[in-house]
From TrEMBL:
It comes from Rubellimicrobium roseum. Pfam families: DUF2391. This is TIGR02587 family membrane protein. Keywords: Membrane, Transmembrane, Transmembrane helix. The chain crosses the membrane at residues 7-26, 32-51, 63-86, 160-181, 201-221, 233-255. NCBIfam families: TIGR02587 family membrane protein.
Length: 256
């Protein structure tokens, strides 16, 4: 039930977004299947660092990942049905597509539910460098997923000049670094000793922004935003989407 609550909290903004309804209808099915498969791999990584239990066994982590995916599907279907967005008379292709798309953020919410909605027993080892990259990947994917389907994101990219795009890149990296190390948020990390700024900036902040950019480009491709689009606009859309993705990466470092 805690996982179900987390799924609802993470997914309901997208359930009430019209672009997400249409995605479930027209999204390329091979890209959707790949997206679901990669989401399951991400859930496996999250299970190790922020799952339901303090488990460090591949079998247990895999079971938790599948459980989160299942809860995500149930929560997405329940919310879509409650709002009348799926129901009798709808074709199976559209119905399954809508539930599948909405289940991705719901499953991430289900996996994060223990840490955020329950008691943290403190029995987990601090995430390794690889683990923190996984957490940043999950955070970047979640916030990018919230923005990528909207038309406003494309409109912003069309209106921006190249020099504004370059400024946005610098701002994204600066905000990611400041959120994690400089603004005294709860969960903020301390800079290590000698060379701490350099190691944290290039090893985490720049690397985190690189993850955000790759996630943004992948999400744009998955949603068909790059199809038939000139490279310059694709680059600008990636930069625009990279800003919320970078915020998501920073948020994941702070709260998980």
């Amino acid at each position: 039930m805690r996982a179900f609550g987390g799924a609802i909290l993470f997914a309901f903004p997208l359930v009430m977004t019209m672009e997400m309804w249409w995605l479930g209808f027209y999204m390329d099915r091979l890209r959707l299947l790949l997206f679901l498969a990669l989401n399951l791999v991400l859930l496996l990584g999250l299970s190790y660092y922020a799952g339901f239990r303090t488990a460090f066994d591949l079998k247990e982590d895999a079971l938790d990942a599948f459980a989160a995916a299942g809860v995500g599907v149930l929560a997405a279907a329940a919310m879509l049905a409650a709002f009348g967005l799926i129901g009798p008379g709808m074709g199976w292709d559209e119905l399954l597509g809508k539930v599948a798309v909405q289940s991705v953020p719901a499953s991430v919410g289900a996996m994060a539910a223990r840490r955020q909605l329950g008691d943290d027993d403190g029995g987990e080892a601090p995430p390794s460098y690889q683990g923190q990259l996984v957490l940043m990947l999950a955070g970047a994917l979640f916030l990018a997923f919230n923005v990528a389907p909207t038309e406003e994101m494309v409109l912003i990219a069309l209106q921006m000049e190249p020099w504004q795009g370059m400024l946005l890149v610098g701002l994204s990296v600066a905000v990611l670094h400041a959120f994690v190390y400089s603004l005294d948020f709860s969960g903020q990390e301390r800079l290590p000793g000698d060379g701490g700024f350099r190691r944290s900036f290039f090893g985490f902040s720049v690397a985190g922004y690189g993850i955000a950019v790759l996630v943004s480009l992948y999400v744009l491709w998955t949603f068909g935003r790059t199809d038939g689009t000139e490279p310059g606009l694709v680059a600008m859309m990636t930069v625009v989407l990279g800003f919320p993705a970078a915020l998501g990466a920073a948020l994941a470092r702070l709260v998980v």
